Amino acid sequence: MPELSTQSKPLYTAQKNNWWKNAVGYQIYPRSFKDSNHDGIGDLNGIRQKLPYLKELGIDFIWINPIYASPNIDNGYDISDYQAIHEDFGTMEDFQDLLEEAHELDLKIIMDLVVNHTSDQHPWFLEAKKSRNNPYRDYYHWVDATEDQPPNNWQSFFGGSTWTYDDTTQQAYFHTFAKEQPDLNWKNPRVRHEIYQMIRWWLELGIDGFRIDAISHIQKEPWDFEITDNQWAPFMNVSGIETYLKELKAIFNEYNVMTVGEASGVPHQEATHWTGDSGYFNMIFELEHCERIGELGSQKGSIPHLKQSLTQWQTSLADDGWNALYLENHDTPRSVSVYGDDSPEAAKALATVQLLLKGTPFIYQGQELGMTNYPFQSIEDIDAADTIHFYQTLLAQGKTTTDALKIAINWSRDHSRTPFQWEDTLHGGFSTTTPWLKVNDNYRMINAVQKEVETSSVFHYYQTLIRLRKQTEALIHGKFDLLSPEHPTVFCYTRTTETERWLVLAQLDRNQTTIDFPASWDYSNWEEILTTTSTKPLKQQMKLSNYEAHVYREITD
Ligand code: TEU
Ligand code: CA
Fold it and tell me: What average pLDDT does range 11-20 have in this prediction?
């Protein structure tokens, strides 16, 4: 096989305006990345220590989950001060040092922007609660109610009513998520003004963009809206939202930064309003491909669903728009456990599929090592509020503790939140003290030091894939076409430009299978560029097994 160039600069140097199209991102969940001051919690100085590691991996930008002041009801997604760093993570000086050091290494930093809601401890809400005519009252949604009669029957994402009754003023306030996360009232121009000022403040600091949290929920239907089929419809991508999103876009444009919107509930048919030349964001995170398909209580993801749904998004954004590509994040279990069998082979095959699609790949911390789900044995080991709530609901429905635990942990967010496995030492080298969430015992085998030594490791495979992607125009801009759409386990597609055609082939299963290609192709014209296993020429009929993946290029000269 031909040697890949090891130069770190991509061949296609990013244009100023859309550098993110050629870039590979890396998501850091700061509580679990690296603890520098031995309190069991990851922090900003921990990230600073590990910048060389990220550089070695080959990524271009980091998205950091919220690091702002927060009571941590939803681990930082309940913000009490947008312009302060949570003391667990360090200080504003630490953040500025991190930003500067990252920039010196040519790494960009994207922050999480959480503006659908604040914490109930935010000064605005503390004021708003005081009386019906408090100047901050209209910063939130308040409606007349009684203790046992909420304004409507809408349900929150974290379980229970979207309304919490407040006895002092005898009204209820609205929350899409936990009751400690009251939704901001975007109809109020003062709210928007304050949010926009805060956004500018961060942009002036020199950050490179935002991942915009839960942004499809900021507009709500009228409170008497009748739910028919979709219980989330009253606050998912509701018409009128475009006014606010355009205002946001105008600010982002002024600073020429990268934006990725979390677009839950935005169907692919509407994606070009959301991303693309006239869209609100540079790219979006769609949530369809990680929907919980299959039996409740089974943690296996469906490969046909994954194929079908990723393909749908590739096709919808083929001519206008741009995808953000991910297989796991801080809200999902680990992809190697969901779509694979925890093996390095499965991790590599999934990486091949994800990183060579059209869009900007996001690698979630530890994914590049093949980190797996955690074998939770007790609800005591769980931190995620929604998992605990789900467990309690299952108990209330009459499930045994064993069954309730089994079902609740299957899709728990905590699988991906366990501490990063740096080395084969106590607590996986994450911290010298007991971490806030348990470390997976498999850190002895799966850790960064080990993976940097082993030449055939998942880590090295990610490095190679990232390099390959950045050197190859067809893998960045080429047209996507799915092959064998009906095959239950093989994910195979081509990426084509006027001058090149590439073929990406992965068997996402341990068993042996067969796949056929068109008889009209000239098979002597394809060279293998990369594989997860031993090399295999492309043939009209191929037998594949054990999560093997191959990447071929058609020779045209
Ligand atoms: O997640 C958003 C989120 O969970 C919903 O938008 C999603 O549509 C729903 O759960 C689908 O089932 C973000 C963060 O990633 C998450 O960690 C936070 O808890 C949440 O927002 C609230 O800020
Ligand atoms: Ca710490």
Answer: 60
Taking the centre of ligand 1 as the mean of its atom positions, its distance from the CA of residue 431, in whole angstroms, is 28
361 in any annotated domain: yes
Q: Are residues 95 and 155 in the same domain?
A: no
Nearest residue to 90 via CA among 68, 73, 74: 68
Phi, psi (degrees; rounded to nearest 5) at 428: 65, 20
The CB density around residue 27, as the number of other CB atoms within 10 Å, is 24
Is the CB of residue 114 below 6 angstroms from any atom belonging to ligand 1? yes
pLDDT score, position 296 = 61
213 labelled catalytic? yes
pLDDT tens per residue, range 238-278:
999 999 999 999 999 999 899 999 999 999 999 989 998 88
Contact 453, 443 (CB under 8 A): no
Residues with CB under 5 A from ligand 2 (ion): 35, 37, 39, 41, 43
Cβ neighbour number for residue 25 with a 10 Å cutoff: 25
Q: Is residue 381 part of a domain?
A: no
Q: How far is the CA of 538 from the centre of ligand 2 (A)?
A: 50
Instruction: Say if pTM beats, i.e. exceeds, 0.70.
Output: yes
**Ramachandran angles phi, psi of 170, nearest 5°:** 55, 45
Total domains present in the chain: 3
The length of the chain is 557
In tens, the pLDDT along 491-517 reads 999 999 999 999 999 999 999 999 999
Q: Which residue lies with its CA nearest to atom 15 of ligand 1? A: 331
Is the shortest distance between the CB of 77 and ligand 1 below 6 Å? yes
Same domain, 133 and 200: no
Q: Is residue 232 part of a domain?
A: yes
445 shares its domain with 492: no
Amino acid symbol at 461: Y
Proximal ligand: closest to the CA of 37:
2
Question: What per-residue confidence (pLDDT) applies to 3?
Answer: 60
Instruction: Please tell me if the CB atom of residue 285 comes closer than 6 angstroms to any atom of ligand 1.
Output: no
| Euclidean distance between CA atoms 254 and 281, whole angstroms | 13
User: Residue 554: CB within 6 Å of ligand 1?
Assistant: no
Q: Is any atom of ligand 1 closer than 6 Å to the C-beta of 214? A: yes
Q: Residue 87 belongs to what domain range?
A: 19-116+189-374+440-465
Is residue 159 pLDDT above 90, yes or no?
no
